[in-house]
Amino acid sequence: MNENDFLIVDNKEIPIEGEQNLLELIRKAKIDLPTFCYHSELSVYGACRLCMVYVEGMGLVPACSTPPSPSMNVKTNTEDIRKMRKIIVELLLANHSQSCPTCQKSTTCQLQALARRLGITEIRFKNQSKNIPVDDSSPSIVRDPNKCVLCGDCVRICSEVQSVGAIDFAHRGANTMVIPSFGKDLDKVECVNCGQCARICPTGALTPKSEVDEVWKVIHDPNKMVVAQIAPAVRVALGEIFGMEPGVTTTGQTAAALRAIGFNRVFDTSFTADLTVIEESNEFIKRIQKNEFIPQFTSCCPAWVKFVEQYYPEFVHNLSSCRSPQQMFGALSKEILAAQTGKKREDIVVVSIMPCTAKKFEAKRPEFIHDGVRDVDHVITTQELGRMIEEAGLNFRELDPESFNLPFGFKTGAGVIFGNSGGVSEAVLRYVTEKLTGEKRESYEFTSTRGENGIREIKISLAGKEFSLATVSGLGNARQVLEKIKSGQAFYDFVEVMACPGGCVGGAGQPVFTNPVVRQKRTKGIYENDRMLELHKSQDNPYINELYTSFLGEVGGHKAHELLHTGYKSRKRIADEGMSLSSSDGEQTIEVNVCFGTGCFLKGAQKLLRDILVHIDTEQLGDKVSVSASFCFEMCEKGPVIRVGDKVIEGCTLEKAALAIEEERQKVLGDKTVNSMQ
Ligand code: SF4
Ligand code: SF4
Ligand code: SF4
Ligand code: FES
Ligand code: FES
Question: Domains in the chain: how many in total?
């Protein structure tokens, strides 16, 4: 296209400057066209039809999937378009569970907002909602299919951005649904609890699982001492719920609000992030010296840890053995507060306030439960804390700032930057550089670890040795990096991974956002926090040094291992653990088994499986063929691999699968004929 190319949107000339679709140009014209299924970071799906516009000579077209061309004349608000939008939203509402006042997404639901914006005051269609059971099996996410508008955003983010593919479309026509793979409950599939699907879901169909009621209960129990820890990323996002700009720091008001609600102590997870830096850096130095389990992977993101355990078990020993700051805090605070106050561990209740849904899962891992008592009892998200503050009737913006309790409320900037992708690497570099060179550095920033790219590579020379680091956010990016390490295409000494794009500032427990600018402002807010603090290196935190002297003993020593470290195990499933997806009730069944292991997934097993199921349906083979999925046939290089009867098909396509099914069917028919003749 030429430099001077333009098109017309609602009578205004808009220059075309490399935009991929009409929607981007319409937004450039400052028109907020409604959309449900378009997100710039995902592939174009074009299903919701809300973005329909009129183009002269073309008629009605979806703006999100129509490429721009010069001199197009686009109208976004004709009478027909306005009517159509209303009908689409009314139909969605008619198919929707109408429980808006009690829905968690009530104030942030895009369907509700659109109904308001389009002035819909009545629904002219009969309520068709089906009352499907709610799936609350996951510790992190609640799935209510009755509120789903089938935009497919969750399916695409889980598969395209996170490369997990735990949820997908199932059934056809009016029965189409989005469900976890193989029709199982969410806790029975490969979901890593990152919650990105819930973050992007425009309605209340996917929401973080709330623990607010349990927290109120312990607050009202006079026998309990209730202790809060606040994660770094929460401080730059909580204010948004109360109308403040993203990135504005609210630590003082948050501490005041928590005390007003009834928490007995208010601490900062950044303190144990400082402790993580010290333990993890020393572990790194030891590994480098022994040349063992390099690269070292960070382990503070539980969704990433589960991803490694489930898809790359060969790398579990590369994960740092350090517990996450949340879990270090739980173990340490219970031990120390019990000794100080004489209270029993079970009467000290640790409540984490996290930007994260995966932390809810992490707190329930059996490694972190001792004698039936969890190290961290409850995890609530930034959103949940916002609801508690609202329920308590506190005027958050007007609260007089208060400070955290000591000692676990004192942190350095290194502990705070954990909230951003790249923060752990930078904090570790602030420690390791001084430790290896034996010299105090004046400056503390390592800005090469920062940035928006999902994969950032850093080379650094220290004490005569070259180090290579990667900071990664988004699990799809992590998969790319792991595959390169596996194939020898890349070598790193240290790899930081955060499951959420941009790190915890973009976690699914944060106030709902879809515009990446919100996340960027939070990121900036975290670095400003670092600059405003007095100290910037974890090794300078006086309370951490005191903790080692008076309680923990040596860094990486016995006590530190008992309270601050852990181990991980493989969660890889192998071929004998097949999951039935469709079973024939015919007499003689053709067994089709599709490998769903990592290698095959990467080579398209998910699409192949879907195509095979559709083929069986359209060819009416449902009574003759049973389909199941298994994990890894140990032929990963040749994927996607399927088995039809006894025959293994490598590099399988739908055509090869259909042929093999037909051959097997002929064989079964032949056997039947022979049997009937005998
Ligand atoms: S929580 Fe994450 S892994 Fe699980 S279904 Fe949602 S996007 Fe996929
Ligand atoms: S669950 Fe939410 S994101 Fe997924 S298809 Fe339904 S409405 Fe869209
Ligand atoms: S990146 Fe942060 S918010 Fe996201 S899953 Fe990991 S720990 Fe949770
Ligand atoms: S946003 Fe274009 S069809 Fe959904
Ligand atoms: S992933 Fe190993 S054979 Fe399919």
Answer: 4
ipTM of the complex: 0.85
| DSSP string for residues in 161-215 | ISS---EEEES-GGG-EEEEGGG--GGGSS-----HHHHH-SSTTEEEPP-HHHH
Annotated catalytic residue, options 280, 309, 426, 434 = 280
Residue range 225-259, pLDDT digits in tens:
999 999 999 999 999 999 999 999 999 999 999 99
Structure tokens, 378: 């409850």
**Does residue 585 share a domain with residue 466?**
no
Segments in the chain below pLDDT 70: 1-4, 123, 125-129, 173, 572-588, 598, 631, 671-678
Q: Are residues 558 and 593 in the same domain?
A: no
Q: Residue 382 has what DSSP assignment?
A: H
Give the range of the structural domain holding residue 177, as residue numbers without chain letter. 87-208
> Ligand 3 — pocket residues by CB below 6 A?
194, 301, 303, 355-356, 358-359, 498-500, 503-504, 507
Residues 263, 41: Cα–Cα separation, whole Å: 40
Please tell me the distance from the alpha carbon of residue 507 to that of residue 151, in angstroms, as a whole number. Answer: 21
| Of 77, 110, 136, the domain-final residue | 77
Q: Per the structure block, which two tokens stand in for 610?
A: 């879907």
Q: Give the number of other CB atoms < 10 A from CB of residue 142.
A: 19
Cα of 166 vs centre of ligand 1, distance in Å, is 6
Residue 243 contacts residue 396 (beta carbons within 8 Å): no
- Model pLDDT for residues 638-650, shown as the tens digit of each residue: 889 999 988 899 9
Q: What are phi and psi of 403, to 5 degrees?
A: -105, 170
Task: State residue 634's pLDDT score.
Answer: 72
Q: Are residues 92 and 73 in the same domain?
A: no
Note the pLDDT of residue 576.
47
What residue's CA is closest to ligand 1, atom 3? 191
- 496 and 590 assigned to the same domain: no
